[in-house]
Design goal:
The N and C termini lie close together (9 Å). The chain has one domain. The longest helix has 34 residues. The chain is an all-alpha fold and 140 residues long. InterPro entries: DUF212 (IPR003832).
Length: 140
């Protein structure tokens, strides 16, 4: 039985999340446990959806209806990551600036992704899909 379709998004999430942790830790000069979450390079969300789309394209072809659905889902997720969630981050920044007394915990301002972060997530997803396909082809 082939579990490639089930494990590929999880592996992409794991690779992207681990990479993001390393990148953030290097930038911060210390282990960046406080920066785990939304935002940063690479985009976990983009890696997850692009890994599924890429695996479908590799195994079923670009003309398969499942690929069309996967690409549509990927676009929605990536547009959301770039526009809506970035706006939420900007709102959090404005709200935090109003909290001058510091009585409340500040809202997380880093929510969305830049085009570079999304592109890096796509690369992680596509490479993960290729690696998983190669692995499952090798063991079958």
């Amino acid at each position: 039985m082939d579990f490639g379709y089930a494990v590929t998004p999880f592996i992409a999430w794991l690779v992207a999340g681990s990479t993001k942790f390393v990148v953030n830790s290097i930038k911060a000069g210390q282990l960046a446990f406080g920066q785990i979450g939304y935002g940063g390079l690479p985009s976990n969300h983009s890696a997850i959806v692009s890994s599924a789309a890429a695996l479908i394209a590799i195994r079923e072809g670009f003309n398969h209806p499942a690929f069309t659905v996967a690409i549509a889902l990927a676009f929605v997720v990536m547009l959301d990551a770039n526009s809506l969630r970035r706006q939420v981050g900007r709102h959090a920044e404005a709200i935090n600036s109003l909290n001058t007394g510091g009585q409340k915990k500040p809202l997380r301002e880093r929510m969305g992704h830049t085009h570079l972060e999304i592109g890096a997530g796509i690369m992680v997803g596509v490479l993960t899909a290729w690696a998983v396909d190669q692995f499952f082809s090798f063991i079958s």
